[in-house]
């Protein structure tokens, strides 16, 4: 194995809680639960020897993994890991017009039309291209054997398609939740998903209360 990636989604924000559309153009903070989720992840995985922490350029990812960074692990922001931009729908409430627009777009995406985007937004294929650039940066550093990557829900689904060598239209094959972990190994030019949508750290914390 050349490299091991611990890939997580950021903790909860108020926009997540309220169902408000939150993409690349929205730079929200974690809420109290999101900070608790980040702390739970840290407590469960602080024994892991990470060589590097990578995040998107958005502060909800920074706040999720800040305890690892405060502990001295080198940190780098890669804007290529940012969330997909939902364009004119950013910061809109989860009401019928958005639900209908997203449902219709999702049908197009699942049908293979991944060059389509919301008005003034990004398509999944555009996100895939910048994710591939970010991934190439991470893979270009052989001294970093084990890395922690914090990113976003929709961009995570696109990345998982890339890692699994699936069409981007297969995004719906994967699931995610706040601070879920996908543990991935890389060797001989191939990725293997070892753990998927793992949130055991949240259950351990819940049981300790």
From TrEMBL:
Q: Name one GO biological process term.
A: negative regulation of glycolytic process
The entry's substrate-binding residues are 9-16, 60
* Pfam families from the UniProt entry: His_Phos_1
Among the GO molecular function terms of this UniProt record, one is: fructose-2,6-bisphosphate 2-phosphatase activity
Show the CDD domains listed in the entry: HP_PGM_like
Q: Does the keyword Translocase apply?
A: no
- Which top-level group of life is the source organism from? Bacteria
- The reply to whether Hydrolase figures as a keyword in the UniProt entry is yes
Q: Which key words are in the record?
A: Hydrolase
* CC terms in the record's Gene Ontology section: cytosol
Quote the protein name from its UniProt record.
Histidine phosphatase family protein
Species: Paraflavitalea soli
């Amino acid at each position: 194995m050349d490299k091991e990636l611990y890939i997580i989604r950021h903790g909860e924000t108020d926009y997540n809680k309220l169902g408000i559309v939150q993409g690349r153009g929205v730079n929200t903070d974690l809420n109290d639960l999101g900070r608790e989720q980040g702390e739970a992840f840290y407590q469960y995985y602080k024994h892991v020897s990470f060589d590097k922490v990578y995040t998107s350029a958005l502060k909800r990812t920074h706040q999720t993994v800040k305890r690892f960074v405060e502990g001295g692990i080198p940190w780098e922001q890669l804007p290529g890991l940012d969330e997909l931009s939902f364009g004119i729908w950013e910061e809109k409430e989860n009401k019928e017009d958005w639900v209908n627009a997203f449902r219709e777009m999702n049908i197009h995406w699942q049908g293979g039309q991944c060059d389509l985007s919301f008005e003034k937004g990004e398509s999944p294929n555009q996100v895939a291209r910048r994710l591939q650039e970010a991934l190439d940066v991470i893979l270009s550093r052989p001294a970093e054997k084990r890395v922690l990557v914090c990113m976003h829900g929709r961009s995570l689904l696109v990345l998982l398609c890339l890692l699994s060598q699936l069409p981007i239209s297969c995004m719906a094959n994967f699931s995610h939740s706040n601070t879920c972990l996908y543990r991935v190994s890389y060797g001989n030019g191939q990725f293997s998903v070892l753990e998927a949508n793992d949130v055991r750290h949240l259950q351990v914390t819940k049981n300790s209360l």
